[in-house]
Amino acid sequence: MTDRYMERALELARAAFAAGEVPVGAVVVKKATGEIVGEGRNMREGAKNALAHAEIMAIDEACKKLGGWRLPDCTLYVTLEPCPMCCGAIINSRIDTVCFGAYDLKSGSAVSVQRMFEYPYNYKPEVIGGIMEEECAELLSQFFAELRLKRKNKQ
User: Fold this and answer.
1) Helix (H, G, I), strand (E, B) or coil at 68
2) Positive or negative CA dihedral for 4, 54, 81, 141?
3) For the chain, what is the radius of gyration of the CA atoms?
4) Other CB atoms closer than 10 Å to residue 96's CB: what's the count?
5) How far is 51 from 78, CA to CA, in rounded Å?
6) Which amino acids are annotated catalytic?
């Protein structure tokens, strides 16, 4: 299953990869219009900021573009299952739907390690996992294989 919004998130993830960042990309889409209102890619290394996750960057841009902190009628597409911090941002921004590609068995907090959206918070988005999962997972695998090789060659 391919999806044009996940394709854009993958383009952003590839840009992160090229910049030496863990390749994660995200877009926020306004459902009523189909318009991408926010984009982000992982930028933690370059920004030297633990908060510079793709989802946070996309949510921030969408809030600025739409003029408020609530993002109703919006869907977040992200290439990797969100972590606890990003799940918190999703809850707080009131995003309706979260679509992700690869599952994150180490820190994924939508379904893998924990199911954060099932806790009794005041807002619960719909979650759809596995969109273009193979492409998303392959990009991450390639990145970490190259990183391990670089580290090995430095020894």
Assistant:
1) coil
2) positive
3) 15
4) 16
5) 16
6) 55
In this prediction the pTM is: 0.94
Residue type, 47: A
Token pair belonging to 38: 């926010």
**Cα–Cα distance, 41 to 48 (Å, whole number):** 14
The structure tokens listed for 148 are: 């391990």
To 10 degrees, the CA torsion angle through 114, 119, 121, 127? Answer: 60
Q: Comparing C-alpha atoms, which of 29, 27, 15 is closest to residue 55?
A: 27
Mean pLDDT by 10 residues, the chain (155 residues): 87 97 97 97 96 98 98 97 98 98 97 96 96 97 89 77
Q: Are strands 126-129 and 74-80 parallel, antiparallel or unpaired?
A: unpaired
